[in-house]
Amino acid sequence: METYNYKKSQEMFARAVKVIPSGIYGHLGPAEGCFIPVQAYPFYVDRAEGAYMWDIDGNRFIDYMCAYGPNVLGYNHLEVDRAAMEQLQRGNSTTLASPVMVELAELLVDTVDSADWAFFAKNGGDVTNLAMLSARAATGRSVVVKFIGGYHGVMPWMQELGYPGIIPEDVENVVTLPFNRADLFATLVANNPDRIAGVIGTPYHHPAMHDNELPVPGFWQDIRRICTENGIVLIVDDVRAGFRLNTRGSDFHYGFKADLICFCKALANGYNISALCGIESLKSAVSSVFNTGSYWLSAMPMAAAVKTISILREIDGATLMKKMGTRLTDGLVEIADEHGFHLKVTGEPAMWFMRLTDDDSGIIHQEWIAECVRRGAFLTNHHNLFINCAMSDEDIDLTFDIAHEAFTAVRRNHPEMFN
Ligand code: PMP
Fold first, then answer.
1. What is the arithmetic mean of pLDDT over 255-266?
2. Is 114's C-beta closer than 6 angstroms to any atom of ligand 1?
3. Which of 86, 156, 285, 308 is deepest in the core (most CB within 10 A)?
4. Cβ-defined contacts of 394-399 (< 8 Å, 24+)
């Protein structure tokens, strides 16, 4: 297998840094995207289809980042794109709302267990923020509880003190607790009667840079009970895991019921839309919050979302992705073992996190990932990875071949490890 070079990507990036802050900002950029070592990664895509993308140097990758989640059915999915294009031709951003918005809300209410209504925006952070504002509006209280390492977006209250631009007042009503510690939540609630508006958490803990954690039995059920007993709004941030674990919602998947649930990434197979869903008693609180955006009612992404959710239901996408993810991760663990390495896999198979545990520094893991990327399996070191429904057994077999070669290369570069 030949290893890739990224001459055109690097030239384009050199042009970009002159005219764009950071060149590529945010999670697709080399800094925040943690593309380490940076030389192993391309920066610009030429085209994408199914489970694959091609960079501007012509290298092909099986893409296990799936655009950080939106690619759930496969890039450029014909039926989703056709539905979106038909709506585009009828009208997209117009002065009046489109009936497809009602169709999508009805579909979500029919699909998602805890949804009695749906409200649409663009990004995940729009709806996690709206959920927090709604919890405050509903309860008349100030404090929001979140879990250490949980990511909910970039609004000031979601950031940490010390981050550029964040002032103490932004975070003074935010309390963070460790995930899976319902006992600490119980103590906090007991010590702060009538102060806590809501608690927000991802359905399982998938922080960057750390092994992921499934909820321990009883965790969410205890949080649910404490919230109900104390009038606290339970918000599930299903922006990343939503529709990958269960089309009925990840709260349903783990056997509890959210008051508010936030969706985004897999909702429309890459078209720009997010949704806040919730229970009937919170509908008027959501209505009362002052919140909108220029493109929040655009019709094209709504048509794409109707098609995406319908297909995910039809093909039972969650079961398919679990099966593929299990085959892939079991295989990678075995291959690591064959080459004398130890690969630790955590999280859910459709959205797994993996880490070679052979050195504490993480360098060996980074080197192995880099060798995989240079051979056409796009992985990152620091973030959970994603399965999509377009991935086939042949794609997984190809990934196994790449993994074998990558381990061989790392072994060759580190003879000291195997003396
Ligand atoms: N919540 C979770 C769990 C996320 O993974 C993300 C995005 N990575 C967000 C919220 C924020 O979504 P967005 O970047 O679309 O605002």
1. 98
2. no
3. 308
4. 395/51, 395/62, 396/324, 396/327, 396/328, 396/331, 398/62, 399/62, 399/64, 399/328, 399/331, 399/332, 399/372
Cβ atoms of residues 272 and 299 within 8 Å: no
Give the span between the Cα atoms of 343 and 337, in whole angstroms: 8
pLDDT of 32 higher than 90: no
CA proximity to 130, closest of 268, 266, 235 = 235
Cβ of 207 below 6 Å from ligand 1:
no
Distance 81 CA to ligand 1 centre (A): 23
State the DSSP H helix or E strand holding residue 59, giving kind and residue range, or none if neither: none
Kindly report the protein residue whose alpha carbon is nearest to atom 10 of ligand 1: 152
Instruction: Render pLDDT for 3-17 as a digit per residue (tens, 0 to 9).
Output: 999 999 999 999 999
The angle subtended at Cα 380 by Cα 377 and Cα 385, nearest 5°, is 80
pLDDT in tens, 361-416: 899 999 999 999 999 999 999 999 999 999 999 999 999 999 999 999 999 999 88
- Look up residue 161 and give its DSSP letter: B
Instruction: Kindly report the pTM of this predicted structure.
Output: 0.98
What is the amino acid identity at position 75? Y
